[in-house]
Specification:
Helix content: 40-55%
Number of helices: 11
Order of helices and strands: EHHEHEHEHHEHEHEEHEEHH
Largest sheet: 8 strands, parallel
Number of strands: 10
Shape: globular
Structural class: alpha/beta
Radius of gyration: 17 Å
Distance between the termini: 34 Å
Length: about 290
């Protein structure tokens, strides 16, 4: 069974204007109604640093998700983890990690050691409160910042995360430059060492290479995919999924491709209306050019 994680967080974080709380909650309710049971919904980070997520707890309260829905929230430190506990809505805490020191500094003002220290604290808080932890490894398929990169570094990073008690790891193609061959090699190497860990991917794609990347990851053994309806996030989509636009992996493309590959998937309703709504929100609230 393939796990599909719908990442509204990735979509909304790319928007310049703040989406009203009730609109976010209404959209999430529609996503749940369509059959999605895993939502990367919000970020519990500094409200000053990310105004779009300032109402995270209220959105989750308004959502009132069914008990069998996994609600994932990004937390970068122990303070965010405490907020996740206090919300009483978050089931899984997501931690942003990277093999790139420059990325960690830019993204969350942490050194690699500080990041691991925070992860340890987050893990303790999550364990005491019956919550899961998933770690996202940015730059898992290449590094545009010029930091050293190779597959061994990725495997070592996953080693460190697993040593800290993480049982779910998502490898992120942060810049969207990974080739299908590279995806296949990295995923196979990581799974070869950590066959008992849930390994997923978070891809950025174009219309030309999206299906090929999905196939490569699936055939390498990946059974968890993070995606975003309409491909919202990253560079703006002026008129749908343009051929040269690098976007978050569109959920509709993921579902279509996995069906062709014969994958066992959750039952989902038609996504057409949700795709239109997602793109309308992007248009209305103005995506930031990245």
């Amino acid at each position: 069974m393939v796990k599909i994680v719908e990442s509204t967080r990735s979509a909304w974080q790319s928007l310049a204007k703040v989406v009203p709380t009730e609109i976010k909650a209404e959209y999430l309710r529609a996503v749940v109604a369509a059959g999605f049971t895993h939502l990367d919904a919000m970020s519990l980070v500094s409200k000053q640093a990310m105004p779009q997520m300032a109402d995270a707890e209220l959105v989750l309260e308004y959502l009132d998700a069914p008990e069998d829905t996994e609600i994932i929230a990004m937390v970068a430190n122990a303070k965010g983890a405490e907020r996740a506990v206090e919300s009483e809505r978050v089931t899984t805490m997501a931690f942003p990690y990277s093999i790139s020191p420059l990325f960690l500094d830019r993204n969350q003002r942490q050194t690699p050691q500080e990041a691991l220290d925070q992860l340890e604290q987050i893990g303790e808080i999550a364990y005491k409160n019956g919550q899961d932890v998933v770690a996202y490894v940015a730059m898992a398929f290449g590094n545009p910042f010029g930091d050293p990169w190779d597959i061994d570094e990725v495997v070592s990073a996953v080693d460190l995360l697993v040593d800290n008690g993480v049982a779910q790891v998502v490898l992120s193609d942060t810049s969207g430059t990974a080739t299908p061959a590279l995806l296949s090699n990295v995923i196979a190497c990581v799974l070869g060492v950590h066959e008992d860990v849930e390994i997923g991917v978070k891809l950025r794609v174009t219309a030309k290479d999206g299906a090929e990347k999905i196939r490569a990851a699936f055939e390498a053994g990946c059974r968890r995919f993070d995606a975003t309806l309409g491909g919202v996030g990253g560079p703006p989509i002026a008129a749908g999924f343009e051929a040269d636009a690098v976007v978050n992996l569109p959920t509709e493309l993921l579902v279509e491709t996995l069906r062709k590959l014969g994958a066992e998937m959750p039952e989902l309703e038609s996504l057409d209306r949700l795709v239109m709504t997602s793109r309308a929100l992007e248009k209305r609230y103005a995506a930031v050019v990245q």
